[in-house]
Amino acid sequence: MEKVFICVDDNALFQPVCDYGIYVAKTIKAEPVFIHVIESPELGENFYGLAAGGIVLGEKDMVLSQYGTFDEDSNKIDEEKSKAMLEKCVAMADEQGVKASTILRDGDFLDIIEEYKNEAKIFVLGIKGTNNEDVGFNATMLIKEMKVPALLVNKEFSPINSVLVAFDGTEAAVKTVKFIKDAKLLKNAKKYVINVNNNAEESQKTLEVAREILKGENAEFVSVSGDVPGDEIIKYRRANNLDLIATGAFSKGFFKKLILGSVSQDILQNALVPILVLA
User: What is the DSSP letter of 202?
Assistant: First the structure.
């Protein structure tokens, strides 16, 4: 059976991530797997200074020097809280008639998630990090490293009845359009394909590629002019109240700017809907 891995944390997006994860699992008839990683503290920068200065410490000593003595009682409390959180996830799935399983692990989030990437049909996780940064580090690195589709959640749940695809004609964009055509999750959703280009003729030529792929689908193809593709995509999404944005992870367009560009924070704050990122 296909599996949807739902990465949960005790933060403001806990409930939306669970809701979207269960929704995705039900829609594609997959098993929801709620996973939480109790992340181990990383070694501080001053550890390398200690080593360079001739003081060589064992790993445990180094961690102790940075974080103080290990508090086994505190670790047990964290584990109990995490177990209770996962039990709550399973209960929510049960209420919707979905049988779910859980995974609780200690260690590095990405190392642990990588162990399950071959089992995952899709990852669902909150877009914000533990420090409430707009694009969480784990979300960014999961997309870059795992090569598995990811649904980044940033709002309370609502059904996905429409999807906006940022299309620039690149290989990643073509792959994204093919994915939304075949995806069980988006079978009944209306597809909107948008190309941002100040050259209207060139834009229409680019959209012809998407039209051919989505022939026979409930789809609209939109050409808009503008100098900042991300801004135009967000404005169109807002004006038409669309439910989801889909994009390729490494296209030259929207998502690259979302993660790496100087306007990334503004774009993400204004997206207001989940983003489906294809590897």
Answer: H
